[in-house]
Specification:
Length: 201
């Protein structure tokens, strides 16, 4: 059974806190969404970034450094290889326990960008929704108040939070459905122009 919106919001509370902290430090909403989505994508690879970031969330110097490094990563994802100047991201690398660096993002930029779109259009619809989080906080306050009064009747979950969270459907174009696996003989250097000519001639 699909989780409810409440389940998703509760599970991603730390992600929401990091998102709000980035905005409070001057990061725009769009960039903050991309940053948190990037960390969620890394979690799918087994690289936990959100928890270490949450642990430094009140350190203004580190958060400012982190935002600067996130800017570098997002620029890396947006630029072509020949246009990109490599900037080191020591704080992100240390938070990720040295499992990633800026070259990782440059090498995997296509799959990362697709992943970010999928996350933002999927669970991001809820994680980044201010209205739904306001509802959740209000509901949790009512539950806490009822517990303090030892009230047997538990407050009802608002309909917007009780609805099922259906995953986003990623529709691929026919070009995106194609794949190819190419192997090269070791020691034989092939120029990119030769590969392009092979498939366009």
């Amino acid at each position: 059974m699909a989780p409810t919106v409440k389940d998703v919001l509760t599970f991603h509370k730390i992600d929401r806190t990091v998102y709000e902290k980035f905005i409070a430090h001057g990061m725009g909403h769009d960039k903050a969404r991309k940053a948190v989505a990037l960390f969620l994508w890394l979690e799918q690879l087994g690289i936990d970034m959100t928890t270490p970031i949450h642990n430094i969330i009140n350190n203004i110097t580190k958060i400012s450094t982190l935002i600067t490094e996130i800017d570098a990563v997002l620029r890396c994802l947006q630029q072509n290889d020949h246009e990109y100047s490599y900037y080191e991201i020591p704080l992100i690398t240390s938070l990720a326990k040295n499992s990633i660096d800026i070259h990782f993002f440059n090498l995997h930029k296509d799959s990362i960008v697709r992943g970010l779109v999928f996350i933002i259009d999927g669970i991001g619809r809820h994680v980044f929704d201010a209205y739904e989080y306001a509802l959740l906080r209000s509901y949790e306050s009512e539950v806490a108040a009822a517990a303090r009064r030892s009230t047997a009747v538990r407050p009802q979950v608002p309909p917007a939070l009780a609805k099922l969270c259906t995953p986003a459907v990623c529709v691929l174009s026919s070009e995106q459905k194609r794949s190819m696996y190419i192997t090269m003989r070791r020691g034989v250097l092939i120029e990119s122009d030769e590969i392009i000519q092979q498939f366009t001639a």
